[in-house]
């Protein structure tokens, strides 16, 4: 009897993570269908990445049940992980290709970096809050994202040693487009960045560099935490 109970116990403890994992996968499939594809995101690689990256492992434990909901969530230090749709939209806007090297400013949880890392060759991501940067670095490594480099620094300055980049994704709002980021964008490259006053409504802007000229296009109003400056 005791032995049977023991075996039942072992069976459930071994299968529980798999069951929980399947449940999360189902939630992701629904998230992509209802929140992302329905709103017009079409890039197959982006949709696939959003179905694969385990977003619930990028949020604090107490928010795991809300990981696949249609809104941003707090990640500590007054920062947030963006709404899934916004992550997908920003990723689609830069037209990511398998061979690309992409810079992200504002690592936060590391989620956007993981989504990019599913699609492109190499992701460089900069975070100004050391605790968040270190945590994201460890998390990304443990999840097997070996093609992401995390740096703790003021991302206003980009990552000059690794420039130029095929694309840049800025996930904190500035009141202007940082000139160093424009300088570090490749010819033909795209940058997506929320621009506007901190804590008020900002505009998501798509910046393109063509034949040395910089063009900008308003995409939609958004709300991001501010891009803060290092001392
Ligand atoms: N992309 C993140 C969410 C970003 S929240 C994710 O997927 O979870 C914005 C992040 O930008 C915060 O972590 C904030 O600390 C960081 N940040 C703000 N100003 C910055 C700066 N000047 N350089 C780098 N990171 C900055």
List its traits.
231 residues, seven-stranded mixed sheet, Rossmann fold, two-stranded antiparallel sheet, binds S-adenosyl-L-homocysteine, alpha/beta
Question: How do the strands and helices of this protein lay out in sequence?
Answer:
Blueprint: H1 2-37, H2 44-52, E1 73-76, E2 79-81, H3 84-93, E3 101-105, H4 111-119, E4 122-127, H5 130-142, E5 148-152, E6 165-170, H6 179-183, E7 185-196, E8 202-210, E9 213-222
Parallel strand pairs: 3-4, 3-6, 4-5, 6-7
Antiparallel strand pairs: 1-2, 7-8, 8-9
Helix pairs in contact: 1-2, 1-3, 2-4
The structure holds S-adenosyl-L-homocysteine.
Small molecules (ligands, ions, cofactors) in the structure: S-adenosyl-L-homocysteine
Classified by CATH, the class is Alpha Beta
Structural class: alpha/beta
Query: What is the CATH superfamily label?
Result: Vaccinia Virus protein VP39
Order of helix and strand elements from N to C terminus: HHEEHEHEHEEHEEE
- Lateral arrangement of strands in the main beta sheet: 5-4-3-6-7-8-9
Number of domains: 1
Cα end-to-end separation = 67 Å
CATH overall fold name? Rossmann fold
Arithmetic mean pLDDT: 94
Shape: elongated
């Amino acid at each position: 009897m005791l032995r049977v109970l023991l075996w039942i116990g072992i069976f459930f403890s071994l299968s529980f993570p798999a069951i929980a994992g399947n449940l999360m996968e189902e939630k992701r499939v629904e998230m992509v269908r209802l929140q992302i594809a329905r709103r017009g995101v079409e890039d197959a690689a982006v949709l696939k990445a959003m179905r694969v990256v385990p977003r619930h492992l990028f949020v604090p434990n107490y928010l795991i049940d809300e990981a696949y909901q249609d809104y941003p969530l707090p990640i500590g230090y007054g920062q947030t992980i963006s709404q899934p749709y916004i992550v997908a939209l920003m990723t689609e806007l830069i037209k990511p290709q398998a061979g690309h090297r992409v810079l992200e400013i504002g690592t936060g949880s590391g989620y956007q970096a993981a989504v990019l890392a599913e699609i492109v060759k190499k992701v460089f991501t900069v975070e100004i809050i050391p605790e968040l940067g270190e945590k994201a670095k460890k998390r990304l490594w443990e999840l097997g994202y070996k093609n992401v480099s995390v740096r703790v620094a003021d991302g206003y300055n980009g990552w000059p040693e690794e420039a130029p980049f095929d694309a840049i994704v800025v996930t904190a709002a500035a009141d202007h487009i940082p000139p160093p980021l424009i300088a570090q964008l490749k010819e033909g490259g795209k940058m997506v960045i929320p621009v506007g006053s901190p804590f008020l409504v900002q505009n998501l802007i798509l910046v393109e560099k063509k034949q040395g000229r910089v063009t900008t296009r308003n995409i939609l109003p958004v709300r991001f935490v501010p891009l803060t400056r290092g001392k």
